[in-house]
Amino acid sequence: MVQVITVPDCPNGPLVEGRLAEVLAGRTDVAMERHVVDTMMEAERWGMHGSPTVLLDGRDPFAAPDTPTSLSCRLYRSADGRAQGAPSAEDLRRALS
Prior knowledge:
Blueprint: E1 2-6, H1 13-24, E2 32-36, H2 40-46, E3 49-51, E4 53-56, E5 70-73, E6 76-77, E7 83-84, H3 89-96
Parallel strand pairs: 1-2, 3-5
Antiparallel strand pairs: 1-4, 6-7
Helix pairs in contact: 1-3
């Protein structure tokens, strides 16, 4: 199960969902869900580390240990060090394998 956790109107929500759709194309063994949270209590319940957060089987494979819960915008580093609003398709494929 892949879950995308975002805050309302997160501009990077569609970006991560598009990359996940690309990565999951043709795969019937993985389902994707989207959840929108707007309180810190909901963010803590989901284990959200900024928006968007991608959870794979309930775990955030992109968060460093001890990353705090956050409702803020989240940035991901690409392989070349650039900041992006979502993990790259390559990073998502690697996390899903």
